[in-house]
Amino acid sequence: MQGYLRQSRRRSIKKMWPYYLMTLPGIAYFLVFHYAPMFGLIIGFKDYSIYTGIFESDWVGLAVFDRLFRLAGFKRALRNTVIISFYKLCTGFPASILIALLLNELRTRAYSKFVQTSLIIPHFVSWVVIYGLLYALLSPNIGIMSVVYKALAPESAVPNLLADKGVFRSLLVITNVWRNAGFASIMYTAAIAGIDPQLYESAQLDGAGRFRQAIHVTLPCIRTTIITMWILRLGSILSVDFEQVLALQNPVVLETGDIIDTFVYRMGLKEAEYSLSTAAGLFKSAIAVIFVVGTNAIVKRIDADSALM
Amino acid sequence: MRRSLGENFGHAVIAAVMFLMALMCLYPFWHVFMYSLSDSQQAMGGGFFLLPRGFSVIQYSVLLRTNNMFRSFTVSVVRVLVGVPFNIFMTAMLAFPLSNRKLAGRGAISMFVFFTMIFSGGLIPSFIINKALGLYDNPFVYILPGAISAYNMMVMKSYFVSLPEELSESAQLDGASVFTILLRIVLPVSIPVIAALSMFYGVGHWNSWFDGVIYIDSKKWQLFQVFLRGMMMESSYQNLAGISDISDLGSLTEESVKMAAISLSLVPVLIAYPFIQRYYIKGLMIGAVKG
To answer: Which of A168, B159, B237, B264 measures 20 to 30 Å from A28, CA to CA?
Structure first.
Protein backbone atom coordinates (compact mmCIF):
# COMPACT_ATOMS: atom_id res chain seq x y z
CA MET A 1 0.00 0.00 0.00
CA GLN A 2 2.69 2.43 0.99
CA GLY A 3 4.71 1.48 -2.05
CA TYR A 4 1.71 2.15 -4.22
CA LEU A 5 1.18 5.53 -2.64
CA ARG A 6 4.79 6.49 -3.12
CA GLN A 7 4.58 5.38 -6.71
CA SER A 8 1.43 7.35 -7.40
CA ARG A 9 2.97 10.33 -5.70
CA ARG A 10 6.03 10.03 -7.88
CA ARG A 11 3.82 9.68 -10.93
CA SER A 12 1.83 12.75 -9.98
CA ILE A 13 5.02 14.76 -9.50
CA LYS A 14 6.08 13.61 -12.95
CA LYS A 15 2.77 14.69 -14.43
CA MET A 16 2.88 17.97 -12.57
CA TRP A 17 6.34 19.04 -13.66
CA PRO A 18 5.11 21.91 -15.86
CA TYR A 19 3.48 23.35 -12.75
CA TYR A 20 6.71 23.07 -10.79
CA LEU A 21 8.53 24.71 -13.67
CA MET A 22 6.07 27.56 -13.51
CA THR A 23 6.78 28.20 -9.82
CA LEU A 24 10.50 28.59 -10.48
CA PRO A 25 10.61 32.31 -11.36
CA GLY A 26 8.58 33.11 -8.26
CA ILE A 27 10.70 30.91 -6.02
CA ALA A 28 13.86 32.37 -7.51
CA TYR A 29 12.48 35.85 -6.84
CA PHE A 30 11.84 35.13 -3.16
CA LEU A 31 15.22 33.45 -2.79
CA VAL A 32 17.14 36.35 -4.31
CA PHE A 33 15.23 39.34 -2.98
CA HIS A 34 13.99 38.03 0.37
CA TYR A 35 15.99 35.04 1.54
CA ALA A 36 19.39 36.27 0.39
CA PRO A 37 18.97 39.47 2.48
CA MET A 38 17.95 37.27 5.43
CA PHE A 39 21.18 35.39 4.94
CA GLY A 40 22.90 38.76 4.71
CA LEU A 41 21.84 39.40 8.29
CA ILE A 42 24.97 37.51 9.33
CA ILE A 43 26.91 40.72 8.81
CA GLY A 44 25.31 41.83 12.05
CA PHE A 45 27.64 39.29 13.66
CA LYS A 46 30.63 40.23 11.52
CA ASP A 47 32.95 43.12 11.07
CA TYR A 48 31.68 43.83 7.58
CA SER A 49 33.28 46.19 5.15
CA ILE A 50 32.48 46.62 1.49
CA TYR A 51 36.07 45.68 0.64
CA THR A 52 36.05 42.28 2.29
CA GLY A 53 32.48 41.29 1.45
CA ILE A 54 29.92 39.21 3.34
CA PHE A 55 31.88 35.96 3.35
CA GLU A 56 35.41 37.16 4.00
CA SER A 57 34.60 39.53 6.85
CA ASP A 58 35.64 38.39 10.33
CA TRP A 59 33.13 36.98 12.78
CA VAL A 60 32.86 39.11 15.89
CA GLY A 61 30.07 37.33 17.74
CA LEU A 62 27.79 39.69 19.60
CA ALA A 63 30.27 42.55 19.71
CA VAL A 64 28.21 44.60 17.25
CA PHE A 65 25.07 44.18 19.33
CA ASP A 66 27.01 45.04 22.43
CA ARG A 67 28.11 48.29 20.82
CA LEU A 68 24.61 48.93 19.48
CA PHE A 69 22.90 48.64 22.85
CA ARG A 70 25.41 51.02 24.42
CA LEU A 71 24.85 53.61 21.73
CA ALA A 72 22.84 56.60 22.95
CA GLY A 73 21.47 57.14 19.45
CA PHE A 74 20.04 53.64 19.33
CA LYS A 75 18.52 53.88 22.78
CA ARG A 76 16.89 57.13 21.76
CA ALA A 77 15.59 55.59 18.53
CA LEU A 78 14.23 52.57 20.36
CA ARG A 79 12.50 54.73 22.95
CA ASN A 80 10.99 56.99 20.30
CA THR A 81 9.85 54.00 18.27
CA VAL A 82 8.04 52.43 21.20
CA ILE A 83 6.43 55.72 22.26
CA ILE A 84 5.31 56.69 18.76
CA SER A 85 4.07 53.19 18.06
CA PHE A 86 2.11 53.17 21.30
CA TYR A 87 0.50 56.52 20.50
CA LYS A 88 -0.42 55.33 17.04
CA LEU A 89 -1.83 52.08 18.36
CA CYS A 90 -4.01 53.97 20.84
CA THR A 91 -5.33 56.36 18.19
CA GLY A 92 -5.33 54.74 14.77
CA PHE A 93 -6.67 51.37 15.80
CA PRO A 94 -9.78 52.57 17.68
CA ALA A 95 -10.31 55.39 15.18
CA SER A 96 -10.80 52.96 12.31
CA ILE A 97 -13.34 50.93 14.30
CA LEU A 98 -15.11 54.10 15.40
CA ILE A 99 -15.34 55.35 11.81
CA ALA A 100 -16.95 52.08 10.73
CA LEU A 101 -19.44 52.25 13.61
CA LEU A 102 -20.32 55.86 12.81
CA LEU A 103 -20.66 55.16 9.08
CA ASN A 104 -23.08 52.41 10.01
CA GLU A 105 -25.28 54.97 11.74
CA LEU A 106 -25.73 57.15 8.66
CA ARG A 107 -29.14 56.53 7.14
CA THR A 108 -28.68 57.73 3.58
CA ARG A 109 -26.57 55.45 1.44
CA ALA A 110 -25.37 58.27 -0.81
CA TYR A 111 -24.22 60.30 2.17
CA SER A 112 -22.34 57.45 3.81
CA LYS A 113 -20.75 56.68 0.44
CA PHE A 114 -19.62 60.30 0.14
CA VAL A 115 -18.16 60.31 3.64
CA GLN A 116 -16.41 57.00 3.16
CA THR A 117 -14.91 58.06 -0.16
CA SER A 118 -13.63 61.29 1.38
CA LEU A 119 -12.04 59.47 4.30
CA ILE A 120 -10.28 56.98 2.02
CA ILE A 121 -8.75 59.44 -0.44
CA PRO A 122 -5.78 60.42 1.77
CA HIS A 123 -4.61 56.83 1.79
CA PHE A 124 -3.70 57.04 -1.87
CA VAL A 125 -1.23 59.87 -1.75
CA SER A 126 2.40 59.39 -0.84
CA TRP A 127 4.01 60.76 2.31
CA VAL A 128 5.99 63.12 0.15
CA VAL A 129 2.74 64.69 -1.01
CA ILE A 130 1.37 64.69 2.53
CA TYR A 131 4.46 66.57 3.64
CA GLY A 132 3.58 69.05 0.90
CA LEU A 133 0.05 69.39 2.24
CA LEU A 134 1.40 69.90 5.77
CA TYR A 135 3.78 72.51 4.47
CA ALA A 136 0.88 74.32 2.83
CA LEU A 137 -1.18 74.26 6.01
CA LEU A 138 1.46 74.73 8.70
CA SER A 139 4.44 76.60 7.33
CA PRO A 140 4.87 79.93 9.15
CA ASN A 141 4.74 82.12 6.04
CA ILE A 142 1.91 80.67 4.01
CA GLY A 143 0.01 78.33 6.33
CA ILE A 144 -3.23 78.68 8.22
CA MET A 145 -1.30 79.06 11.45
CA SER A 146 -0.05 82.49 10.47
CA VAL A 147 -3.62 83.77 10.34
CA VAL A 148 -4.53 82.09 13.60
CA TYR A 149 -1.53 83.60 15.35
CA LYS A 150 -2.16 87.04 13.93
CA ALA A 151 -5.64 86.89 15.39
CA LEU A 152 -4.81 85.39 18.78
CA ALA A 153 -1.30 86.57 19.54
CA PRO A 154 -0.31 89.36 17.18
CA GLU A 155 2.97 90.11 18.95
CA SER A 156 4.50 86.66 19.00
CA ALA A 157 6.26 85.14 16.04
CA VAL A 158 4.48 82.36 14.19
CA PRO A 159 6.07 79.05 15.27
CA ASN A 160 7.22 76.58 12.68
CA LEU A 161 5.31 73.46 13.67
CA LEU A 162 7.11 71.45 11.02
CA ALA A 163 10.43 71.88 12.81
CA ASP A 164 9.41 71.62 16.44
CA LYS A 165 10.52 68.60 18.40
CA GLY A 166 7.68 69.15 20.86
CA VAL A 167 4.95 68.62 18.30
CA PHE A 168 6.63 66.18 15.93
CA ARG A 169 5.11 63.07 17.50
CA SER A 170 1.66 64.64 17.49
CA LEU A 171 2.18 65.43 13.84
CA LEU A 172 2.99 61.78 13.16
CA VAL A 173 -0.02 60.57 15.12
CA ILE A 174 -2.46 62.99 13.49
CA THR A 175 -1.26 62.44 9.94
CA ASN A 176 -1.32 58.69 10.56
CA VAL A 177 -4.98 58.79 11.55
CA TRP A 178 -5.73 61.22 8.75
CA ARG A 179 -4.16 59.03 6.11
CA ASN A 180 -4.97 55.52 7.31
CA ALA A 181 -7.98 55.36 9.63
CA GLY A 182 -10.61 55.75 6.91
CA PHE A 183 -8.95 53.15 4.78
CA ALA A 184 -8.53 50.71 7.65
CA SER A 185 -12.22 51.08 8.46
CA ILE A 186 -13.15 49.41 5.14
CA MET A 187 -12.50 46.00 6.67
CA TYR A 188 -14.84 46.71 9.56
CA THR A 189 -17.48 48.24 7.31
CA ALA A 190 -17.46 45.05 5.26
CA ALA A 191 -17.74 42.93 8.39
CA ILE A 192 -20.64 45.07 9.61
CA ALA A 193 -22.40 44.68 6.27
CA GLY A 194 -22.33 40.93 6.81
CA ILE A 195 -24.18 41.03 10.13
CA ASP A 196 -27.58 39.34 10.13
CA PRO A 197 -30.25 42.12 10.32
CA GLN A 198 -32.39 39.87 12.52
CA LEU A 199 -29.91 40.41 15.34
CA TYR A 200 -30.67 44.13 15.25
CA GLU A 201 -34.39 43.49 15.07
CA SER A 202 -34.39 41.29 18.13
CA ALA A 203 -32.18 43.77 19.99
CA GLN A 204 -34.72 46.44 19.10
CA LEU A 205 -37.55 44.33 20.46
CA ASP A 206 -35.59 44.09 23.68
CA GLY A 207 -35.63 47.86 23.78
CA ALA A 208 -32.03 48.52 22.81
CA GLY A 209 -31.42 51.93 21.22
CA ARG A 210 -28.90 52.57 18.45
CA PHE A 211 -26.06 53.06 20.89
CA ARG A 212 -26.67 49.83 22.74
CA GLN A 213 -27.15 47.99 19.45
CA ALA A 214 -23.72 49.19 18.38
CA ILE A 215 -22.17 48.01 21.65
CA HIS A 216 -24.02 44.72 22.04
CA VAL A 217 -24.60 43.61 18.45
CA THR A 218 -22.19 45.29 16.05
CA LEU A 219 -19.01 45.11 18.12
CA PRO A 220 -19.33 41.43 19.13
CA CYS A 221 -20.17 40.53 15.52
CA ILE A 222 -17.01 42.10 14.12
CA ARG A 223 -14.83 40.74 16.91
CA THR A 224 -12.94 38.32 14.66
CA THR A 225 -12.03 41.09 12.24
CA ILE A 226 -10.88 43.30 15.11
CA ILE A 227 -8.67 40.56 16.54
CA THR A 228 -7.16 39.72 13.15
CA MET A 229 -6.34 43.38 12.60
CA TRP A 230 -4.91 43.58 16.11
CA ILE A 231 -2.51 40.68 15.50
CA LEU A 232 -1.37 42.17 12.22
CA ARG A 233 -0.98 45.55 13.86
CA LEU A 234 1.12 44.20 16.72
CA GLY A 235 3.42 42.55 14.21
CA SER A 236 4.45 45.98 13.08
CA ILE A 237 4.86 47.32 16.61
CA LEU A 238 8.39 48.50 15.83
CA SER A 239 7.54 49.55 12.28
CA VAL A 240 6.32 53.06 12.75
CA ASP A 241 5.82 53.72 9.04
CA PHE A 242 9.34 54.48 7.94
CA GLU A 243 8.30 56.48 4.87
CA GLN A 244 6.08 58.71 6.96
CA VAL A 245 8.76 59.54 9.50
CA LEU A 246 11.46 60.01 6.89
CA ALA A 247 9.28 62.28 4.78
CA LEU A 248 8.27 64.47 7.72
CA GLN A 249 11.56 64.38 9.60
CA ASN A 250 14.24 67.03 9.71
CA PRO A 251 17.41 67.33 11.81
CA VAL A 252 15.69 69.56 14.36
CA VAL A 253 13.20 66.88 15.44
CA LEU A 254 15.56 63.90 15.68
CA GLU A 255 15.48 63.95 19.46
CA THR A 256 11.80 63.02 19.57
CA GLY A 257 11.39 61.70 16.06
CA ASP A 258 14.33 59.45 15.26
CA ILE A 259 13.03 55.87 15.01
CA ILE A 260 14.88 52.59 14.51
CA ASP A 261 14.24 52.62 10.77
CA THR A 262 15.54 56.12 10.25
CA PHE A 263 18.45 55.30 12.55
CA VAL A 264 19.27 52.28 10.39
CA TYR A 265 18.98 54.38 7.26
CA ARG A 266 21.25 57.13 8.56
CA MET A 267 23.82 54.82 10.11
CA GLY A 268 23.83 52.30 7.30
CA LEU A 269 23.53 54.26 4.11
CA LYS A 270 24.85 57.66 5.11
CA GLU A 271 27.64 56.70 7.52
CA ALA A 272 28.37 53.25 6.07
CA GLU A 273 28.04 51.52 9.45
CA TYR A 274 26.78 48.37 7.76
CA SER A 275 27.17 45.86 10.56
CA LEU A 276 25.77 48.17 13.21
CA SER A 277 22.68 49.13 11.24
CA THR A 278 22.08 45.55 10.17
CA ALA A 279 22.14 44.53 13.83
CA ALA A 280 19.59 47.24 14.60
CA GLY A 281 17.39 46.03 11.74
CA LEU A 282 17.68 42.42 12.89
CA PHE A 283 16.69 43.45 16.39
CA LYS A 284 13.57 45.08 14.98
CA SER A 285 12.64 42.12 12.77
CA ALA A 286 13.10 39.69 15.64
CA ILE A 287 10.81 41.71 17.91
CA ALA A 288 8.21 41.79 15.13
CA VAL A 289 8.23 38.00 14.79
CA ILE A 290 7.99 37.55 18.55
CA PHE A 291 5.00 39.89 18.70
CA VAL A 292 3.13 38.25 15.81
CA VAL A 293 3.73 34.70 16.96
CA GLY A 294 3.13 35.60 20.61
CA THR A 295 -0.10 37.48 20.04
CA ASN A 296 -1.29 34.75 17.74
CA ALA A 297 -0.59 32.11 20.36
CA ILE A 298 -2.49 34.06 23.01
CA VAL A 299 -5.42 34.64 20.68
CA LYS A 300 -5.46 30.95 19.81
CA ARG A 301 -5.92 30.11 23.51
CA ILE A 302 -8.76 32.55 23.97
CA ASP A 303 -10.54 32.30 20.66
CA ALA A 304 -9.19 29.72 18.23
CA ASP A 305 -11.28 30.95 15.28
CA SER A 306 -9.68 34.35 15.30
CA ALA A 307 -6.07 33.15 15.22
CA LEU A 308 -4.13 33.68 12.01
CA MET A 309 -1.83 30.68 11.99
CA MET B 1 -40.12 52.20 12.29
CA ARG B 2 -40.57 55.11 14.68
CA ARG B 3 -37.54 56.82 15.99
CA SER B 4 -37.30 58.64 19.27
CA LEU B 5 -36.34 62.28 19.46
CA GLY B 6 -33.07 61.31 21.11
CA GLU B 7 -32.21 58.98 18.29
CA ASN B 8 -32.91 61.60 15.67
CA PHE B 9 -30.78 64.09 17.55
CA GLY B 10 -28.00 61.53 17.87
CA HIS B 11 -28.18 60.82 14.17
CA ALA B 12 -27.98 64.50 13.32
CA VAL B 13 -24.88 64.88 15.50
CA ILE B 14 -23.20 61.87 13.91
CA ALA B 15 -24.06 63.09 10.41
CA ALA B 16 -22.56 66.48 11.25
CA VAL B 17 -19.42 64.98 12.77
CA MET B 18 -18.92 62.78 9.73
CA PHE B 19 -19.31 65.81 7.49
CA LEU B 20 -16.58 67.59 9.42
CA MET B 21 -14.32 64.56 9.14
CA ALA B 22 -14.90 64.36 5.39
CA LEU B 23 -14.11 68.06 5.15
CA MET B 24 -10.87 67.60 7.07
CA CYS B 25 -9.82 64.92 4.63
CA LEU B 26 -10.65 66.93 1.54
CA TYR B 27 -9.73 70.47 2.53
CA PRO B 28 -5.91 70.14 2.41
CA PHE B 29 -6.10 69.07 -1.23
CA TRP B 30 -8.47 71.90 -2.07
CA HIS B 31 -6.28 74.38 -0.20
CA VAL B 32 -3.18 73.41 -2.16
CA PHE B 33 -5.03 73.46 -5.47
CA MET B 34 -6.55 76.89 -4.82
CA TYR B 35 -3.19 78.25 -3.67
CA SER B 36 -1.57 76.93 -6.82
CA LEU B 37 -4.05 78.89 -8.94
CA SER B 38 -3.63 82.09 -6.95
CA ASP B 39 -1.49 85.04 -7.83
CA SER B 40 1.84 84.57 -6.04
CA GLN B 41 1.91 87.95 -4.32
CA GLN B 42 -1.71 87.93 -3.20
CA ALA B 43 -1.37 84.43 -1.80
CA MET B 44 1.53 85.39 0.47
CA GLY B 45 -0.40 86.11 3.66
CA GLY B 46 -1.56 82.56 4.19
CA GLY B 47 -4.81 81.55 5.83
CA PHE B 48 -7.66 79.57 4.35
CA PHE B 49 -8.03 79.23 0.59
CA LEU B 50 -11.60 78.55 -0.33
CA LEU B 51 -11.10 80.24 -3.69
CA PRO B 52 -7.95 81.37 -5.50
CA ARG B 53 -6.78 84.89 -4.65
CA GLY B 54 -6.31 86.57 -7.96
CA PHE B 55 -5.56 84.14 -10.72
CA SER B 56 -2.31 82.97 -12.23
CA VAL B 57 -0.94 79.92 -13.92
CA ILE B 58 2.63 81.17 -14.36
CA GLN B 59 3.78 78.71 -11.70
CA TYR B 60 2.40 75.87 -13.80
CA SER B 61 4.08 77.05 -16.96
CA VAL B 62 7.36 77.42 -15.06
CA LEU B 63 6.96 73.94 -13.68
CA LEU B 64 6.13 72.42 -17.04
CA ARG B 65 9.18 74.00 -18.62
CA THR B 66 11.42 72.44 -16.00
CA ASN B 67 13.39 69.60 -17.48
CA ASN B 68 13.58 67.51 -14.32
CA MET B 69 9.87 67.72 -13.72
CA PHE B 70 8.90 66.41 -17.12
CA ARG B 71 11.54 63.70 -17.16
CA SER B 72 10.77 62.46 -13.66
CA PHE B 73 7.04 62.45 -14.38
CA THR B 74 7.71 60.26 -17.40
CA VAL B 75 9.94 57.92 -15.39
CA SER B 76 7.19 57.45 -12.81
CA VAL B 77 4.50 56.85 -15.42
CA VAL B 78 6.67 54.34 -17.25
CA ARG B 79 7.44 52.66 -13.93
CA VAL B 80 3.72 52.10 -13.38
CA LEU B 81 3.06 51.01 -16.97
CA VAL B 82 5.92 48.51 -17.06
CA GLY B 83 5.89 47.52 -13.42
CA VAL B 84 2.25 46.58 -13.02
CA PRO B 85 2.02 44.07 -15.91
CA PHE B 86 5.28 42.53 -14.75
CA ASN B 87 3.94 42.28 -11.18
CA ILE B 88 0.76 40.63 -12.39
CA PHE B 89 2.64 38.21 -14.63
CA MET B 90 5.06 37.15 -11.89
CA THR B 91 2.32 36.92 -9.29
CA ALA B 92 0.07 34.80 -11.52
CA MET B 93 2.93 32.49 -12.47
CA LEU B 94 3.34 31.60 -8.81
CA ALA B 95 -0.29 31.79 -7.70
CA PHE B 96 -1.60 29.51 -10.45
CA PRO B 97 0.45 26.38 -9.68
CA LEU B 98 -0.07 26.93 -5.95
CA SER B 99 -3.84 26.98 -6.47
CA ASN B 100 -3.70 23.45 -7.86
CA ARG B 101 -4.71 20.98 -5.17
CA LYS B 102 -2.81 18.16 -6.84
CA LEU B 103 0.52 19.93 -6.54
CA ALA B 104 2.55 18.05 -3.93
CA GLY B 105 4.47 20.47 -1.72
CA ARG B 106 2.25 23.47 -2.35
CA GLY B 107 1.88 23.96 1.39
CA ALA B 108 5.63 24.13 1.78
CA ILE B 109 5.98 26.67 -1.04
CA SER B 110 3.16 28.77 0.44
CA MET B 111 4.92 28.70 3.79
CA PHE B 112 8.17 29.70 2.09
CA VAL B 113 6.39 32.76 0.69
CA PHE B 114 4.39 33.55 3.82
CA PHE B 115 7.50 33.58 5.98
CA THR B 116 8.79 36.63 4.10
CA MET B 117 5.75 38.50 5.36
CA ILE B 118 6.69 38.18 9.01
CA PHE B 119 10.46 38.23 8.77
CA SER B 120 12.78 40.17 6.51
CA GLY B 121 16.45 40.88 6.13
CA GLY B 122 15.79 44.58 6.39
CA LEU B 123 17.19 47.60 4.65
CA ILE B 124 20.96 47.13 4.78
CA PRO B 125 21.29 43.49 3.67
CA SER B 126 18.76 44.17 0.88
CA PHE B 127 20.77 47.17 -0.16
CA ILE B 128 24.00 45.17 -0.25
CA ILE B 129 22.38 42.35 -2.25
CA ASN B 130 20.71 44.67 -4.74
CA LYS B 131 23.92 46.57 -5.22
CA ALA B 132 25.80 43.32 -5.80
CA LEU B 133 23.19 42.42 -8.43
CA GLY B 134 24.04 45.60 -10.30
CA LEU B 135 20.78 47.33 -9.49
CA TYR B 136 22.44 50.47 -8.17
CA ASP B 137 21.57 53.44 -10.38
CA ASN B 138 19.74 51.01 -12.62
CA PRO B 139 16.03 51.58 -13.34
CA PHE B 140 15.36 47.85 -12.97
CA VAL B 141 15.56 48.46 -9.23
CA TYR B 142 12.07 49.94 -9.54
CA ILE B 143 10.69 46.70 -10.94
CA LEU B 144 12.64 43.65 -9.78
CA PRO B 145 12.94 43.79 -5.98
CA GLY B 146 9.18 44.29 -5.63
CA ALA B 147 8.15 41.87 -8.39
CA ILE B 148 5.82 39.82 -6.17
CA SER B 149 4.08 40.91 -3.03
CA ALA B 150 3.49 37.88 -0.83
CA TYR B 151 0.14 39.25 0.28
CA ASN B 152 -1.03 39.89 -3.28
CA MET B 153 0.11 36.44 -4.31
CA MET B 154 -2.05 34.91 -1.56
CA VAL B 155 -5.03 37.00 -2.67
CA MET B 156 -4.63 35.82 -6.25
CA LYS B 157 -4.14 32.24 -5.15
CA SER B 158 -7.33 32.21 -3.10
CA TYR B 159 -9.17 33.66 -6.09
CA PHE B 160 -7.84 30.91 -8.37
CA VAL B 161 -8.81 28.29 -5.82
CA SER B 162 -12.39 29.59 -5.93
CA LEU B 163 -12.62 28.98 -9.70
CA PRO B 164 -14.27 25.70 -10.76
CA GLU B 165 -11.67 22.99 -11.26
CA GLU B 166 -13.30 21.69 -14.46
CA LEU B 167 -12.22 24.92 -16.13
CA SER B 168 -8.56 24.01 -16.37
CA GLU B 169 -9.08 20.24 -16.30
CA SER B 170 -11.00 20.13 -19.57
CA ALA B 171 -8.38 22.29 -21.24
CA GLN B 172 -5.69 19.98 -19.90
CA LEU B 173 -7.44 17.02 -21.54
CA ASP B 174 -7.35 18.90 -24.81
CA GLY B 175 -3.60 18.89 -24.47
CA ALA B 176 -3.15 22.56 -23.71
CA SER B 177 0.08 23.43 -21.91
CA VAL B 178 -0.03 24.82 -18.37
CA PHE B 179 1.09 28.19 -19.62
CA THR B 180 -1.68 28.27 -22.22
CA ILE B 181 -4.26 27.32 -19.62
CA LEU B 182 -3.14 30.17 -17.37
CA LEU B 183 -2.99 32.69 -20.18
CA ARG B 184 -6.05 31.74 -22.23
CA ILE B 185 -8.45 30.26 -19.72
CA VAL B 186 -7.70 31.25 -16.15
CA LEU B 187 -6.57 34.86 -16.52
CA PRO B 188 -9.51 35.94 -18.72
CA VAL B 189 -11.98 34.87 -16.03
CA SER B 190 -9.89 36.49 -13.30
CA ILE B 191 -10.33 40.09 -14.39
CA PRO B 192 -11.70 41.25 -10.98
CA VAL B 193 -8.67 40.06 -9.07
CA ILE B 194 -6.26 41.28 -11.76
CA ALA B 195 -7.88 44.69 -11.68
CA ALA B 196 -7.70 44.84 -7.90
CA LEU B 197 -4.08 43.73 -7.71
CA SER B 198 -3.14 46.11 -10.52
CA MET B 199 -4.49 48.89 -8.32
CA PHE B 200 -2.51 47.65 -5.30
CA TYR B 201 0.69 47.43 -7.29
CA GLY B 202 0.03 50.58 -9.32
CA VAL B 203 -0.62 52.81 -6.31
CA GLY B 204 2.49 51.35 -4.70
CA HIS B 205 4.63 52.11 -7.74
CA TRP B 206 3.32 55.64 -8.16
CA ASN B 207 3.74 56.55 -4.51
CA SER B 208 7.06 54.92 -3.78
CA TRP B 209 10.06 57.16 -3.52
CA PHE B 210 12.44 55.64 -1.02
CA ASP B 211 13.94 53.21 -3.54
CA GLY B 212 14.39 56.17 -5.84
CA VAL B 213 16.28 57.98 -3.07
CA ILE B 214 18.68 55.23 -2.07
CA TYR B 215 19.32 53.41 -5.34
CA ILE B 216 19.15 56.05 -8.04
CA ASP B 217 21.90 58.59 -8.38
CA SER B 218 21.50 60.04 -11.85
CA LYS B 219 18.77 62.57 -12.59
CA LYS B 220 17.96 60.58 -15.70
CA TRP B 221 16.03 57.97 -13.71
CA GLN B 222 14.70 60.20 -10.97
CA LEU B 223 11.14 59.46 -9.83
CA PHE B 224 8.53 62.18 -9.78
CA GLN B 225 8.00 61.71 -6.04
CA VAL B 226 11.73 62.19 -5.51
CA PHE B 227 11.67 65.32 -7.62
CA LEU B 228 8.74 66.53 -5.55
CA ARG B 229 10.56 65.76 -2.32
CA GLY B 230 13.62 67.62 -3.51
CA MET B 231 11.45 70.55 -4.38
CA MET B 232 9.72 70.56 -1.00
CA MET B 233 12.94 70.17 0.95
CA GLU B 234 15.02 72.81 -0.73
CA SER B 235 14.24 76.06 -2.35
CA SER B 236 12.38 75.30 -5.54
CA TYR B 237 14.63 77.50 -7.62
CA GLN B 238 17.45 75.02 -7.22
CA ASN B 239 15.27 72.44 -8.86
CA LEU B 240 14.27 74.86 -11.54
CA ALA B 241 17.88 75.15 -12.67
CA GLY B 242 17.12 73.49 -15.97
CA ILE B 243 14.86 76.32 -17.07
CA SER B 244 15.86 78.48 -20.04
CA ASP B 245 14.90 82.08 -19.19
CA ILE B 246 14.68 82.76 -15.50
CA SER B 247 13.94 86.43 -16.06
CA ASP B 248 10.21 86.16 -16.58
CA LEU B 249 9.69 84.60 -13.16
CA GLY B 250 9.01 88.12 -11.88
CA SER B 251 7.11 88.12 -8.63
CA LEU B 252 6.64 84.37 -8.60
CA THR B 253 7.25 82.83 -5.17
CA GLU B 254 8.70 79.39 -4.61
CA GLU B 255 5.62 78.53 -2.56
CA SER B 256 3.40 78.92 -5.60
CA VAL B 257 5.61 76.62 -7.62
CA LYS B 258 5.61 74.05 -4.80
CA MET B 259 1.83 74.12 -4.59
CA ALA B 260 1.58 73.72 -8.35
CA ALA B 261 3.91 70.71 -8.17
CA ILE B 262 1.82 69.03 -5.47
CA SER B 263 -1.35 69.71 -7.44
CA LEU B 264 0.19 68.13 -10.53
CA SER B 265 1.22 65.07 -8.58
CA LEU B 266 -2.41 64.53 -7.62
CA VAL B 267 -3.66 64.44 -11.21
CA PRO B 268 -2.88 60.75 -11.90
CA VAL B 269 -4.38 59.78 -8.54
CA LEU B 270 -7.55 61.72 -9.39
CA ILE B 271 -7.79 60.14 -12.84
CA ALA B 272 -7.33 56.66 -11.42
CA TYR B 273 -9.49 57.22 -8.36
CA PRO B 274 -12.81 55.90 -9.71
CA PHE B 275 -11.03 52.66 -10.67
CA ILE B 276 -9.08 52.54 -7.44
CA GLN B 277 -12.23 53.02 -5.41
CA ARG B 278 -14.04 50.30 -7.32
CA TYR B 279 -11.41 47.58 -7.58
CA TYR B 280 -9.20 48.28 -4.59
CA ILE B 281 -11.98 47.72 -2.12
CA LYS B 282 -13.15 44.62 -3.96
CA GLY B 283 -9.62 43.29 -3.79
CA LEU B 284 -9.46 43.88 -0.06
CA MET B 285 -12.60 41.81 0.26
CA ILE B 286 -11.15 38.94 -1.79
CA GLY B 287 -8.13 39.05 0.49
CA ALA B 288 -10.22 39.18 3.62
CA VAL B 289 -12.18 36.04 2.79
CA LYS B 290 -9.22 33.87 3.62
CA GLY B 291 -7.02 36.31 5.52
So the answer is: B159
